[in-house]
Amino acid sequence: MVGLIQKLFMDMVWSIGGDEAVNKIKQAANLPLDHTYQICDVYPDDEWQRVLAAGLELLNITPEQADEVYADYFLNDAIKRFPTWFAMAKTSYDFLVIQPTIHNCFATSVIEQKDRNAINDKFVVDKFPETPNKLVTHYRSQNHHCGLYKSLAKCVLKHYKDEAHIEEKQCLKLGGTECEIHIQWSKLGESSYATEK
Ligand code: HEM
To answer: How far is the CA of 103 from the centre of ligand 1 (A)?
Structure first.
């Protein structure tokens, strides 16, 4: 996975427990203490799983709590680090429509074709021009971060002051062929993309 996720996770851990906490996670995940993450480099998924598991244990939180805490940290950072994406999207709907594009932009910086494809293939968003307050996201990844997707989507809604019901109709972890996440808005500002075919 591209290092932005791991870097911000370690930054969050540092903000809570400083160098000591970061070093404990590196040790538990079998990483050298001088290991760092670059936001555009690719790191093995199994390394991320070890770092995340060590982080959950150290912070004494469940995966669901981690999704919420990390989503909040990640989005606040992303708003400052990548303001143009947020300026381009007038509403939470617009932002979630371009979310796969944002991810695919990172794929272009990755040299190996197979790593590029892995990033590009993770998210597909369906729009419904006849129902302009609904999106369906199809997510497929061995990282199983549908919980993180839903938590991040909630943070995006909060940022744009919109309201929506989010429901995962099928989940890879529960035997589905993918994670299928339905988002139905009950309060939405004026979107640029909602009625676009
Ligand atoms: C400016 C905002 C954002 C940026 C720059 C960004 C960037 C990234 C990057 C670089 C990755 C690693 C990609 C990979 O290696 O496959 C990632 C992973 C992920 N992002 Fe985002 N993201 C943003 C917003 C969002 C939002 C709003 C959502 C959900 C609504 C989201 C959901 C996810 C999920 C679920 C993953 C884990 C993918 C996996 O299974 O490996 N992201 N993001």
So the answer is: 6
In a domain, 55, yes or no: yes
* pLDDT tens digit sequence for 128-160: 989 989 999 999 999 999 999 999 999 999 999
Report how many domains make up the chain: 2
Provide DSSP, 83-110.
Answer: HHHHHH-SSHHHHHHHHHHHHHHHHHT-
Domain residue limits at 15:
4-60
Q: Are strands 123-127 and 163-170 parallel, antiparallel or unpaired?
A: unpaired
Which amino acid, one-letter code, is at 124? V
Residue 89 lies in a domain: yes
Any bridge partners for residue 139, and if so which?
A: 123, 179
Tell the residue nearest (CA) to atom 1 of ligand 1: 78
Average pLDDT, stretch 164-173?
98
Same domain (yes/no): 173, 88 = yes
Output the pTM of the full model.
0.95
Pair 120, 46 in one domain: no
pLDDT of residue 197 exceeding 70, the answer is no
The alpha carbon of 122 and the centre of ligand 1 are apart by a number of angstroms equal to: 10
Q: Which atom of ligand 1 is nearest to the CA of 79?
A: 1
Task: Tell me if 145 CB under 6 Å of ligand 1.
Answer: yes
Ligand 1: does its nearest atom lie under 6 Å from the Cβ of 5? yes
